[in-house]
């Protein structure tokens, strides 16, 4: 599939692949087992300049395009899916959102540290009563003089407590429904901001997922991102990019599972020959290879639309829907190809299977992706 990438994008892929194989993939199983934040992997990405890759050079980034970013998310997730989501949320949901909607002062204040990775970014919209229905959030932001006072609880927040900078959503005008939701930049260390205990998860165990608690947390007036009432617009725009990142994460996880299954099938001998010679195994491998390429192309197409400045709500949702379902299906198949070995922690495919499931849930479940796609295609037919 080289023919779809420019020389620069191919160079990005070669560089990140080598780094992941050398410094990230070998540590992934250990971090997963210990459910420990992958600091060494994060540091490797910072040291090699990947963390700020999509931010403009004036803020310390490399000004690379969305296709290059999703190539990196795929390659990182192929080695360690937990590091993949930390990187993806930091870039698309936090740094890029501040870049797109922030004031010049907010950009200069936050982006240089996000570009180097000195500070980690997070995105907090989900609440106990508002998951798929993000418009139902109740965290409130009340104006008091020249401050905003925030109260509420966010849940399931990637990198909560580890991250330094949170793009966070709260209701500033309850009388206006979803148009009364606004976005803020919240910094770790503020009085009134605390974090819950990390969730004990099925997969991506090395990424921290926890509550963000706001108790009379006071922010300066200029902590608002965009205008009052812009919150849902900002969140949905960020998620249009984020979902392409999650599609890339799913492709990376599936690619890793496919490679492990292929290599095992070529080596494992039963009935006097490698199991790769049995048609049942060949068909599974052929389906895997085909579906991975299809998912990758959908992901690149959505990223390319983003790079061209086109609206890509439908493309992002289609890519995430297809790639996450594909990753789930084929990580299960990879375990099947490894037989009993696949069911043990000695081999990586059980981790890939556990990691794949989340791609069908976060940044919008598969059911919500279908709703988004349906809404868009029905509009197309009507117009
Ligand atoms: C590991 C992890 C990391 C996460 N990271 C973040 C983060 O960094 N920031 C953040 O803000 N959030 C984060 N989330 C939250 C995540 O985005 C939500 O869990 C997700 O959007 C689903 O919301 P929910 O869990 O409340 O499920 P619900 O919305 O309660 O959904 C439950 C089920 O009902 C279905 N459903 C709901 N509504 C409909 C409908 N209208 N039609 C058909 N089916 C429907 C869903 O598809 C799902 O199958 C994370 C979650 C996890 C598990």
Provide keyphrases for this structure.
alpha+beta; Butyryl-CoA Dehydrogenase, subunit A, domain 3; Butyryl-CoA Dehydrogenase, subunit A, domain 2; 4-stranded mixed sheet; 383 residues; binds flavin-adenine dinucleotide; Butyryl-Coa Dehydrogenase, subunit A, domain 1
Overall description:
This protein has 383 residues and is α+β, with helices and mostly antiparallel strands. It has three domains: 2-119, Orthogonal Bundle (Butyryl-Coa Dehydrogenase, subunit A, domain 1), CATH 1.10.540.10; 122-230, Beta Barrel (Butyryl-CoA Dehydrogenase, subunit A, domain 2), CATH 2.40.110.10; 232-382, Butyryl-CoA Dehydrogenase, subunit A, domain 3, CATH 1.20.140. The chain contains ten helices and ten strands. The strands form three sheets. The chain has a four-stranded mixed β-sheet with strand order 1-4-5-8. It has a four-stranded antiparallel β-sheet with strand order 2-3-7-6, covered by helices on one side. Strands 9-10 form a two-stranded antiparallel sheet. A hairpin with a 2-residue loop joins strand 9 (269-270) and strand 10 (273-274). Flavin-adenine dinucleotide (FAD) is lined by residues 89, 123-126, 131-132, 156-158, 201, 209, 358, 361-365, 367-368, 371.
The helix content, as a percent range, equals 40-55%
Q: In total, how many beta strands?
A: 10
Low-confidence stretches: none
Question: Which architecture of the largest domain does the CATH hierarchy give at level 2?
Answer: Up-down Bundle
**What's the total helix number?**
10
Sheet having the most strands: 4 strands, mixed
Secondary structural class: alpha+beta
Beta-strand percent range: 5-15%
> Radius of gyration from the CA trace?
21 Å
Please give the CATH class of the largest domain: Mainly Alpha
- Structure ligands: flavin-adenine dinucleotide
